[in-house]
UniProtKB/TrEMBL annotation:
CDD domains: CAP_ED. InterPro entries: cNMP-bd_dom (IPR000595), cNMP-bd_dom_sf (IPR018490), RmlC-like_jellyroll (IPR014710). This is Crp/Fnr family transcriptional regulator. Residues 15-115 form the Cyclic nucleotide-binding domain. PROSITE patterns: CNMP_BINDING_3. It comes from Maribacter confluentis. It holds the Pfam family cNMP_binding.
Amino acid sequence: MSQLFIKKFREKVTLDLEEEKILLNHLSLKKLKKGEHFLYAGEITEHITFIEKGVLRAYVLNSKGDENVVLFGLEGWTMGDLNSFIKKKPATYNIDALEDTELVLISKESHVRLLDILPKYESYIRILMTDAYMAIQKRTANIISLPLDKRYEIFVETYPDIIQRVPQYMIASYMGITPETLSRIRAKK
C-alpha cells in the first residue's frame, strides 16, 4: 500500500532498491474511517503521517469550542503535529479523516533510526520541512496582504481537489471567514 509514498519520496530524492527496502521495513499502515480521529489535541504524536489515500484535516478548538481548520491534507501529503512529534509535547491539533483514509506511518523510533542509517531519508525530511515552511510563509503573507476574493482564488488554483472533496463550511473556517462570506465570494466568481 505504500506505493504513493515511495513515488512521492522518489520525486524528491532518488532511491536504489536496497534503500527502498530499508525504508519500507520502517513503515506501518493505518486505516481511518470517515470521521475517525488520528490525533487529539493534548496527546503526544508518535508518528510522521503520509496520506496514501483520503483526506485529513487538522483543526483547533477556540474558547467557545468552535473548530478552526488549520490545514487539509490529501493523497501524497505529509501531515501531523510537528512540535508534538519532535519535542514530545502535547499536540495542538486535532486531526481527523474527512473520507475513509489510508495512512503510511513512520514511528519516532523508525524516524531516528532512518536518520542514522539512510542519508537520503534525512534529505527527504529536510526537503519536506523546507517546503512546509515556505507554504506557511506564503499563506501568512496572503492572509495579511490580499483581499478575501484573491485569497479564495489562490486557494482554488492551488488546491482544486480540496474544493471538490471538503465541505464549504470547513473551507470557510480554513480561510477564517463565515460560510456566508464564502458564499458571497463564490457568487462573484
